[in-house]
Every structure is written in structure tokens, then in C-alpha cells.
Amino acid sequence: MSYPEQLEALLGQAVYELPQAEKEQQLGSLLLALHRHHQLQCNEYSQLYPQPLKATENMAGLPYLAVRLFKLLDLKSVADDEVLKCLSSSGTTGQIPARIYLDAVTSRWQSKTLVKILQQFLGKQRLPMLIIDCQASHMSGAALNARSAGIQGLAMFGRNHTYALNADMSPNWAAIDAFCAQHQHEKVLIFGFTFMVWQYFVKALQQQGRSINLPQGHLFHSGGWKKLQSESVDNATFKQGVEASTGIQQVTNFYGMAEQVGTVFMECSHGYLHAPATADVIMRNCFDLSEQPTGEQGLIQVLSALPFSYPGFSLLTEDLGTVHGVDDCECGRKGKYFTVQGRLPKVELRGCSDTAAAAV
Ligand SMILES: [Zn+2]
To answer: How far is the CA of 325 from the centre of ligand 1 (A)?
Structure first.
């Protein structure tokens, strides 16, 4: 089977029912095909990894790129005239954003995969949607690109899209109150980036002594805990705070990289993140990069079957995580389940990026 046929077959599988051993086979052979494709089509990639891989190589034996390389190099595996859009990741002030080149095919697969994953949680019906952000027209620069891409990805699951924040990040009470009055008794979708939901929504409600009531709301949030950790807000505190101020009981965190749009690792009711059929994670020892056993913290490597137009199918992130088990989460989903503990401390981060830069 060709790569597109294999990918279609994998996308046709139930999202969370593939046991790990079978995933190693199916996803593994797809990733090997992607490795060969990028070797042929991306100069920089083939310079980093000139050697052919054995067809018997397991997933842990596949090469990976430091995610930082997308900030340093223009990595693409399709001709310039096939590039549909270039996504740039957030990057705080002074940092170079990563540049991700998408063609029509990769872009379509990203949307299809995201739809399949989210339907597991939301069903097929579009729900009224409250977005904890300001309208894209008020954003600028890199923030516009990364944030609006994230919002657009989820917006296709919603209707009556309502933006909860003004341009200055203050709550738009008129919009929020109108949304709540209209949809209080229905299922609604709420989406925002973790920090923004906490800082500009939950805390704003608390500070003003206000509350809203969306008992059938389902909040999805992503984007990392770094800023919240400094305020000692963990997942449990976050959920309690959200419920106390908004009545929302269903809160789902998810993990994903701007460099692998469409590939999201959703949190289950037991608090673990799950890899869908089209993706996987491997934790690597911070010092020698060997694969960590279950239960041991390591650097998160994310593997995804989707990146065809850029060599992002296997990335070593700068996040720390732990795999807690395989095929036996109490929620019933198969495959690996894991948690994310945050970013590498800065001093080690520099070490890693030096290594990545030296490898080029
Ligand atoms: Zn689970």
C-alpha cells in the first residue's frame, strides 16, 4: 500500500482501540514511509539522516528532529508552489517563531484527524461555542497565526461562535451574558488556551465577584501549564476553579504541538492523555536520549502520521512527561497513556538546543 492508502486505513480505525503492538506495526510502517519521503524530498533532513533504515526498525528506532530546528531552518518536503500556507508558532517576544509549511494534502489530513478525535468527545452535532479569546482581527503578529489557527481548528465543531474577551483581554460581559442567557440549558462547547482561560476568564470572574452558569458546558483547553505552575495552579485546582465560577463540570485538557497540528492527545476521565491511532509518544532520557521505561519521566518525543509536506512526523519536544501504562487505562482506551509535567528547566534547554544546532 502507498502512504496515502495506509494513512486512510489508519484514519479509518477506531481512534482509541488499536492495541500498542498493532499500532507499532501499522503506524510504524507509515512512519518509516514518511522517513523515506522526507529523505528524498527535504535536503536538510537527508543531510541529518542520510542512512537508510531497516524495514524492521521499530518506532523507537526512527530518527527524530529537535522541535527547535523548525525555528532555525525552513524545512519542507514539497515544492514551493505546493505550499498552501505557512504556520508560525507563538514564540514569545524576541524569540524566532517556528515555520511550518503545509500543502493541501497535509492540511486536509490534519482537519480530518482532528474531527475524528474530537467527535469521540463531542459527537457529530455542532454546538454553540464560547471562545475564551478575542477576535482574530484584534490579534497581531505571531499570536495571530498560532492562536487563530488553534481556534479555527476547533471552531468547525461550533456554531454561534461568541468571543468572550475584548481586544485588551478584559471580559466582554455583554457577549458572555447574552451567550449564557441563550444557551444555559443546552450542551455548549467552550474553548481557550489554558493560561488565558485561567487568567482572563476564571480569575476575572472571581475578582469581580461574578459567576456564570453553563452546567452542560464542555471546556477544552490546551497550551501548557508553565505560567500556571508559577501560580501553583495544577490540573485539579484549574478544574475546581472553572466549576466554581462557571458551573462547567466537563473540562478536558489536551496536549499538542503547533508543529503537529491535527495531532492532539486528549485527557480522559482518569486524568491521562491518550495517543490516537495516528500518533504516539516516546519518553526519552534527558541525558542519553534512550527510551525511558513506563513510569519514568523523560523528554517527550511525539510521532504523527500526518506531516507529509514538512519533516515533522517525529519530533523531540522540550517538554517533560511520563508514560503511566500501555493498553490498560481504566477508561478503556488502548495504547499508551501519559501525563505532561512541564518544560525542561532553562539551563538544560540551552544544552539541548546547542546539541540541535550542532547537528545541523
Ligand atoms: Zn484513560
So the answer is: 10
Q: Considering the chain, tell me which residue range(s) the CATH 3.40.50 domain(s) occupy.
A: 125-254
Q: What are the CA-CA distances from residue 137 to residues 144, 171, 284, 318 (Å)? A: 8, 17, 40, 31
Q: Per CATH, which fold does 125-254 belong to?
A: Rossmann fold (3.40.50)
CA-closest candidate to residue 201, choices 244, 157, 151, 264 = 244
Ligand 1 centroid from CA 335, angstroms = 10
Residue 353 is predicted with a pLDDT of: 42
Separation of 118 CA from ligand 1 center, angstroms? 15
Say how far apart CA 69 and CA 112 lie, in whole Å.
27
If 0-12 CB within 10 Å is exposed, 13-18 middle and 19+ buried, where does residue 234 land? exposed
Mean pLDDT, rounded, for 39-44:
94
Q: What is the mean pLDDT of residues 47-74?
A: 88
Q: If you measure from the C-alpha of residue 265 to the centroid of ligand 1, how many angstroms do you get, rounded to a whole number? A: 11
For ligand 1, the distance from its centroid to the CA atom of residue 269, given in whole angstroms, is 6
Stretch 217-224: mean pLDDT: 92
Q: How far is the CA of 341 from the centre of ligand 1 (A)?
A: 17
pLDDT tens profile 97-143: 888 899 999 999 998 999 999 999 999 899 999 999 998 766 666 55
**How many Å lie between the centroid of ligand 1 and the Cα of residue 121?**
13
Most confident of the ranges 97-111, 203-217, 226-240: 203-217
Which one, of 95, 67, 18, lies nearest residue 327 by Cα? 18
Ligand 1 centre to CA of 336 (Å) is: 9
Mean per-residue pLDDT of the chain: 89
Taking the C-alpha atoms of residue 338 and residue 275, their distance in angstroms, rounded to an integer, is 9
User: Residue 18 C-alpha to ligand 1 middle, in angstroms?
Assistant: 14
Question: How close is the Cα of 322 to the center of ligand 1, in Å?
Answer: 14
